[in-house]
Design brief:
By secondary structure, the protein is α/β, with parallel strands linked by helices. It is built from seven helices and 27 strands. Strands 1-17-19-20-16-14-15 form a seven-stranded mixed sheet, with helices on both faces. β14, α3 and β15 form a beta-alpha-beta unit. α3 runs parallel beside α6.
């Protein structure tokens, strides 16, 4: 295919999505929390599977209690069989004895030997959980694409559903690169940690690999060793400098697709495919790496899991004007103060503390060159 350079974000996402192939698998329901269903779930049974007591007390025939009151209690015999003026002790959740149709709460009775006084009448089905009251047999419980929550898992187990078909949580190999991290320079490689924590937060399964030198043969071996993963994320080496080798390696072993995205920070983002595995090249500068991961890697994970990974977005009034390069999507870090979004006047994509000092960022679209002070903007929170 044609290799594209410096394309817009939306075009880049479309190209990436066309290369993704979500997979599904069957998993025990205990392991399905947070997964997206790849099938419709239909209840195999009525639940509860029988009429059962909803309160501790006595199972009775409702008609035998009619007229009972505080001043004129009805007296019944405690028994283990249903019958006229018979009361059978039951606990919450127990099957309702055959021949009874209601439960008197124990609080509405006084026991004396094998007799009880009943001070409140009940109607049929009072304090009874009817068969199928919760879920009926063949009822659709969950639609395809439903994201399973804790209570959903509990219900599935109650219905006897032991396995479900879900979209697979992608395994993502995270490979940092750069000689500077191997030369005892005091510079620590932390981008891979940041990216892997984001991946876990989004529901993926990251695996951080060791730092790879700026060497074509080593980079090639590192990529080829991770082809059992669903996605490969390379950090660094994505630009066009002397030590930026990822594009050349992609040409040798895979399909390079695009290099450079009209976004700031994050322009040196690239994408390709190696043996049907999507490979995303993230810039080496920390803030550029973060914004590229939020823009592309999050969307890749969401697409493979067939779900939208929601962002927390707040509206705020802009405290000062912000500008952007025409034709570029710009991400401006801001601090929230008393309903105002205060831009941090730091544009360096290598200054990670500009993120830790901010609450979120605003997106300046490609079509405009900035926002004026006092405009209402959307702030996308980092956390």
């Amino acid at each position: 295919m044609e290799i594209k350079e410096t394309i817009r974000v939306e075009e880049a996402l479309k190209i990436i999505f066309d290369k993704l192939k979500p997979s599904v698998r069957r998993v025990p329901v205990e392991e399905a929390l947070g997964c997206t269903l790849a099938e419709e779930i239909i209840s195999p049974i009525d639940y509860p599977p029988f009429d059962r007591a909803a309160m501790d007390g006595f199972a009775v025939r409702a008609r035998d209690t009619y007229g009972a009151s505080q001043s004129s209690p009805v007296i019944m015999e405690i028994s283990d069989r249903a019958g006229e003026m018979k009361a059978i002790p039951v606990n919450t959740g127990e099957r309702l004895p055959e021949g009874t149709d209601a439960v008197i709460m124990i609080e509405d009775t006084v026991q004396s030997g094998n007799l009880i006084e009943i001070f409140s009448e009940v109607h049929p089905a009072k304090n009874v959980a009817r068969k199928g009251e919760d879920v009926e047999k063949e009822e659709i419980i969950f639609e395809r694409s439903h994201i399973l929550r804790c209570a959903d898992i509990a219900l599935l187990k109650a219905l006897g559903v032991d396995e479900v078909k879900v979209f697979s949580r992608p395994k993502v190999a995270v490979i940092p690169t750069g000689n500077e991290f191997l030369e005892n320079s005091g510079i620590k490689e932390t981008n891979s940690l940041m990216v892997s924590l984001l991946l876990k937060k989004w529901g993926a399964m990251p695996e951080i690999k060791g730092v790879v030198r700026d060497d074509k043969a080593e980079l090639r071996r590192a990529i080829e060793s991770t082809l059992s993963s669903d996605v490969i994320a390379i950090i660094g080496g994505t630009s066009a400098g002397r030590r930026d080798l990822l594009w050349d390696v992609l040409n040798d072993i895979g399909e390079p697709v695009f290099r450079g995205v009209a976004m700031s920070p994050g322009r040196p983002t690239l994408f390709g495919v190696v043996e049907e595995r999507p490979l995303l090249g993230l810039p080496g500068y920390p803030v550029a790496c973060l914004m590229s991961a939020l823009t592309f890697l999050r969307e890749i994970v969401g697409k493979l899991m067939n779900r939208r990974i929601e962002e927390r977005i707040l509206k705020a009034r802009l405290a000062a004007p912000v500008t952007s390069k025409a034709g570029y999507r710009t991400f401006t870090r801001v601090k929230l103060r008393h309903g105002m979004a205060v831009p941090l006047m730091t544009h360096g994509s290598g200054i990670l503390s500009s993120v830790t000092r901010s609450d979120g960022y605003i997106v300046i679209p490609e079509e405009i060159e900035g926002f004026e002070a006092d405009e209402i903007v959307e702030v996308r929170l980092f956390e």
